[in-house]
Amino acid sequence: MDSQSSGVATPCPFRDLHIPFPVVTSGGTPDLVISPDGTQIVYVADVADGSPGGQLYVQVFDQLDAVLLRGAVGAINPFISPDSDSVGYFSFQDRTLKRVPLQGGPPITLAAVGGIDGANWGPDDTILFAERGISTGSRRRAVNPSR
Q1: pLDDT beneath 50, residues of the chain
Q2: Would you identify the CATH topology of the domain 17-115?
Q3: What count of other Cβ atoms lies within 10 Å of the Cβ of residue 56?
Q4: Is 137 exposed, middle or buried (CB count within 10 Å of its CB: 0-12, 13-18, 19+)?
């Protein structure tokens, strides 16, 4: 009898995952996110110069080492696309919302923002985020990363 017909879940293989610290935190929680397909994790690690935000790394669960997403600096608040192919983030470096392919490539600027309190990349390819700034307070805003 298999696990589907018996109603008992088949255990997943266990693997140790070592993330180098310090991981950047936003609001007291670590800046890391698991992809919707469950195959990888993206996290923000501190940069040596102590500047705000950090650098994005992707750790594919079946690989030994995490990979630096080059060019994604000053990053906080990462979030992953529904197809698990790209990661979005806020860049402290130039105060923009960006996306970068998880397989590597240059970051693409999506919008200038004062800051974000969080974001979600919906199945319709719209990113909804809470924007904050000195003059705007906080407001919800959406962008489409494909356009």
Answers
A1: 1-3, 134, 147
A2: Neuraminidase (2.120.10)
A3: 29
A4: exposed
Q: Token pair 């030994």 is at which residue?
A: 64
CA distance linking residue 145 with residue 33, whole number of Å: 19
pTM reported for the whole predicted model: 0.76
Q: What is the pLDDT of residue 1?
A: 45
Q: What is the pLDDT of residue 108?
A: 92
For the chain, the maximum distance between any two Cα atoms, rounded to a whole number of angstroms, is 62
Structure tokens of 19? 């993330």
pLDDT confidence of residue 41: 92
| CB-based contacts of 29-35 (< 8 A; 24+ apart in sequence) | 31/75, 31/76, 31/77, 31/78, 32/78, 33/78, 33/79, 33/80, 33/87, 34/80, 35/80, 35/84, 35/102
